[in-house]
Amino acid sequence: MSLLVVGSVAFDGLESPYGKVERALGGAATYFAVAASFFTHVNLVAIVGEDFTAKDAAIFRGRHIDLMGLERAAGKTFFWAGRYSENLNERVTLTTELNVFADFKPRLPEKYRDSKYVFLANIAPDLQRDVLQQVKKRPKIAALDTMNYWIERTNDELRETLRHVDILMINDAETRQLSSEHNLLRAARNIFKMGPSTLVVKRGEYGAMLVDKRGVFCVPAFPLEEPHDPTGAGDSFAGGFMGYLASAGDKTDASLRRAMVYGSVLGSFTVEKFGLDRLRTLKRSEIHARARHFAKLTQFTL
Ligand code: AMP
Description:
Number of strands: 14
Radius of gyration: 18 Å
Shape: globular
Distance between the termini: 39 Å
Largest sheet: 10 strands, mixed
Bound molecules: adenosine monophosphate
Helix content: 25-40%
Number of helices: 11
């Protein structure tokens, strides 16, 4: 079952207490596509500039990722730079340069238009909506991620896009900002009024929480002794989550719970190294071994 994603393919400048990288391949859709491709076929919709080389595109090769929707344009690729605090829990954005994304008009290749699973990764909400509108029938699951940058600058457009999605996947600070509510359960209720019927809150080292009308499910983050760079952990989480759901082909409570675990598994691998370095060498057997480890981690008797 193929999964459609639209979002940023980017170059990132990363600074953490563990080191500094001036320009690494990144972008929400890049992390998402690589993570999801361990579970299902991925169709990627994004734009890159002339500075994006065949060597950069190598991250997608040899995986189940279709690049027909990856447009090349005159100009520079999206650039983002961020710096992490000592404990890696806080991040400040130093630079956001939209570059080729500023004038992007996504056109879905015909074969992408009957997608059943759609992920609107973090990018301008009107681009997310534009892509969703080009999908012929309402997908089985349409999920969306966003961030403070868009919540602050394009709130009306974001709310319009949210009316058409089933799952919102954002972090705790963004949940509070979007809903104007500190308590996450009450925030979920506000968000359900905006359109989505499921909220997935990504909480960094504290794991993730899924809220829907059936109740709440929590998954921990995998305890790591030496996390290096949290960039892309949220997008990798989303890739594991949506990739698993697309491969399962349903949205039962049991599948959603397993999707949360696979999300947390993929996110945990990403933070082990800088940028995409850990995902580059990741093997399916390692994913399944860590999922089994999660089962042990959370098992108890009453
Ligand atoms: P995450 O750490 O999961 O929040 O995602 C980090 C990725 O999001 C980086 O690789 C950035 O290139 C990308 N990113 C940062 N800001 C934006 C933005 N405003 N729009 C789209 N992508 C962004």
